Amino acid sequence: MPYKMLPVLEIDGKPVAQSNAVARYLAKKYDLMGRNEWDAMICDVLVDTLGDLKQDDMGGLRVCSGP
C-alpha cells in the first residue's frame, strides 16, 4: 500500500494512492471531465478548492454560527 494510506486503486497490478490523482484518472477514463477544456478546468478548481479547505481544516471558513 503506497504511503500506507487509503484510498488505493490498483491499475494493471500496480497500486496508486492519492485520492485526487485517482479521481482524475477515473474521471478521464469514464469521460466525466466535462465537454471541453473549460469544463475540465472547473472540475480541477472544485477538487483543488476542497483540498485547500481540508488542508486549512476549516479554520478560516465559518459556514454558520450558532449560539
TrEMBL record:
Domain GST N-terminal: 1-34
Annotated SUPFAM superfamilies: Thioredoxin-like
Catalysed reaction equations from the record: RX + glutathione = an S-substituted glutathione + a halide anion + H(+)
The organism's place on the tree of life at top rank: Eukaryota
Keyword annotations: Transferase
GO molecular function, one term: glutathione transferase activity
An example Gene Ontology biological process: glutathione metabolic process
Gene3D superfamilies for the chain: 1.20.1050.10, Glutaredoxin
Enzyme nomenclature, EC number: 2.5.1.18
Pfam families assigned to the protein according to its UniProt record, in alphabetical order: GST_N (PF02798)
UniProt keyword DNA damage present: no
InterPro entries in alphabetical order: Glutathione_S-Trfase_N (IPR004045), GST_superfamily (IPR050213), Thioredoxin-like_sf (IPR036249)
Similarity section: Belongs to the GST superfamily. Sigma family.
Name of this protein: glutathione transferase
